[in-house]
Amino acid sequence: MQRHQDLERHGIHHSHQEMEWFDVLPGEQVAYRVHGKDVNNEYSLFDLRMAAKQGNGPIAIHHKADEIFRIIEGEARFHIGGKKFNAGAGDVIVVPRGTPHAFAYVDNVYSSGR
Q1: Domain annotation covers residue 10
Q2: Residue 112 has pLDDT above 60, yes or no
Q3: Which residues have CB under 8 Å from 93's CB, separation 6+?
């Protein structure tokens, strides 16, 4: 096991111009703001854009790091550890490592009867 003093810590700067958006599902884009590997797998920070899309996101569980989502555009219905709630532009969502979670575009969730 690696001791805390053996882990290299350093400042992180990611400019807005360096952001790279990835299409996860149709109408859903994610940009990594902080990768877990940069912070000893303590957390990952994502910006999220939600627009009309088909289907709901799959349930995921990440064991290495907490996840932090910042909603930039749109609105999503989150399912985190058995709780359900809507989140919109400007909201921040923290998902502790090991917690089942999923999210989907709000209009799609309501139209499917969930």
Answers
A1: no
A2: no
A3: 68, 69, 71, 78, 80, 87
Report yes or no on 55 lying in a domain.
Answer: yes
pLDDT at 39 over 60: yes
Closest CA to 25 of 61, 47, 67, 53: 53
Residue with tokens 């990594």: 32
Which residue type sits at 65?
A
CB-neighbour burial class of residue 113 (10 A; exposed 0-12, middle 13-18, buried 19+): exposed
Question: How many Å apart are CA 65 and CA 57, to the nearest integer?
Answer: 19
91: containing domain? 15-111
Burial class (CB in 10 A: 0-12, 13-18, 19+), 6: exposed
Q: Which two tokens stand for residue 26?
A: 């149709």
Residue-level pLDDT at 92: 95
Eight-state DSSP code of residue 112: T
d(CA 108, CA 55): 7
Residue 88 has a CB neighbour count (10 Å cut-off) of: 12
